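Continuing the series of single-chain predictions for the mutant panel. This is the parent chain; the variants come on the following pages.
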Amino acid sequence: MEEKIALEEKIKLLNNMFERTREEIGKAIIGQREIIDFVLIAMTAGGNVLLEGLPGLGKTQLVKTIGKVLDMSFSRVQFTPDLMPSDITGTDIFVKDEQSFVFQKGPVFANIVLADEINRATPKTQSALLEAMQERTVTVGKNTYKLPDPFFVLATQNPIESEGTYPLPEAQLDRFMFKLNVAFPSAKELTEIVNLTAATQPEPQQVADSSLFAQIREIANQVPVAEAVMDFAMNLIVKTHPQNGWEQAQKYIVTGASPRAAQAIIAASRIRAVLNGRYNVSFDDVKAVAKPVLCHRILLAFEALSDNVTAEDLVDKLLVEKK
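Parent structure:
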């Protein structure tokens, strides 16, 4: 009984710290409350996030603000067509005085790496992040270097219909725990943004550090998942594969979500439960994180394009059918 009370108090304390973190981020970011929550959930789970939206929607500002509020080292890489993999990972440089090669670390060696407009670089350069995102290491020549702990890639990309963009390879998309679509602000939010820009901007303050994520994750990993909820989540993954009999998948999907999606949906659901003050995962937790986890992992067939069916539409139908 005492252990349960202590756990409830700890969850309450962590929730308060999480809420203060959101409030500080909100000083520099108008609206986008759901986006902020999802980014923080993914970072708590140790996952990477892909933010998609038109230029000027505050994606870069959001990532920079999170780094400041959580007191993490931060680096920004502007992806361009002429960017080389070594510009991200680093390279061996010959030092004349020492008559030897010394590894010069690239910007990937930071707690938070902002890969800005990642889809403006060539696939070769995009792939430079694959090892970092999955293994948390960088290999140059014969040497492998560990990245800082914690380590997150928060990438932004312009919609793929934009000129001069390269679609991310499926293998790299799968390394992103969430893909979040940043919507254009409402007229009211635009007014607030203009007023904030014209006035002296409030400076977000540090309210926590990376240990907050570690504490929440430690509790979340212990949160039980009922068999019915686990079956519900895993069936969502299985149904996205055409060979498993779901009619919509057979018609509109070429490749479904990977096992990483199964890991991500459970990890994110557990963290969402804890952040809502609960020590159990509900069906609503799974439903809330289903779209950010699944949509970018579903490869659509041509029929989906011709019938104007999106991955979001398919996940919506899947959630209704599994209700």
